[in-house]
Amino acid sequence: MRLATWNVNSIRARSEQVVAWMNRHAIDVLAMQETKCTNDEFPVMSFIAHGYDVAFHGTSGYNGVAIASRLGVHEVHNGFDGEPTYNGEIQARAMSATCGGVRVWSLYVPNGREPGHPHLQYKLDWLGALADVTSLELTHDPAAQIALLGDWNVAPTDEDVWDPEYFQGRTHTSEIERAAFTKFIDHGFVDSAAPYTPGPRTFTFWDYQAGRFARNEGMRIDFGLCSPALNNRIHDAFIDREVRATQGASDHAPVVFDVSALTL
To answer: Torsion over CA of 57, 102, 84 and 44, rounded to 10 degrees?
Structure first.
């Protein structure tokens, strides 16, 4: 099985590019973030035409998540128990589905905007609630096959940003955000791409502005945090930097995981 996560930054603008990339790399399951469309606007046929089932969760022209799979999409659930609201609204930032025996999550963690902004507290509350739900699931079933895939909007270490000094006093690298991310690791989830994509300067996101990509001034903020049982099956992973260089690309690169067959 080949799993992947990709912040596509508008699926309506890039559906054909995304599906072509999935075919080229034989992707079985893709978790997408920042789809930026309502459910009625999602380009379903682009995926169905290539043999992919797709589930999606979008409520506006912002945020939005989706899961495409040629292994089936079962037990779809939008959001999670205890998910916080922002301005009284639960945003379309999380969904999960069972694909090929793996509980796949697509997660678009809130940005946080800037220190002191209410959106940062929302981000911390959101991550805390998600950690509670997913750790409970892992506690109940240590053999569970779980992949928390997505754009986490946190760079866990200084090696995960192009210039730590530049990010001082900004979001994504603060101690409180890093602690919220590390909580998942403490609960047993594993940063499964890390052994195969060693740093420093191994990034998944480069801002469109100021020629960041050309100078490799990026951040590593897209992750697959896997349950121990699933992590034991992962035998390779890579960040597809090349697709970020193409014309009209998303500002994020996909992260891909190769998973061995489950041995009973």
So the answer is: 0
Report the interhelical angle of 118-140 vs 175-186 (nearest 10°): 10
| Interatomic CA distance for residues 138 and 215, integer angstroms | 40
End-to-end CA distance of the chain: 16
DSSP state at residue 51 = T
pLDDT tens-digit readout, 157-192: 999 999 999 999 999 999 999 999 999 999 999 999
CATH class of the domain whose range is 2-259: alpha beta
Q: How far apart are CA 226 and CA 192, in angstroms?
A: 6
Mention every residue, 6+ apart, whose C-beta is less than 8 A from residue 231: 190, 192
Q: Number of helices (H) and strands (E) in the chain: give both, helices first.
A: 6, 12
**Residue 239 clears pLDDT 70, i.e. is over it:** yes
Beta strand extents in 8-145 (DSSP E only): 29-33, 53-57, 65-69, 74-78, 94-99, 102-108
- Check residue 200 and give its pLDDT: 86
Domains of the chain, residue spans: 2-259
27 CA to centre of own chain:
15
Contact 191, 225 (CB under 8 A): yes
CA pair distance 200, 204, nearest whole angstrom: 12
Cis before residue 198, ω within 30 degrees of 0? no
Residue 224: how many CB atoms within 10 A of its CB? 28
| Over residues 242-251, mean pLDDT | 94
The pLDDT of 115-122, averaged and rounded, is 97
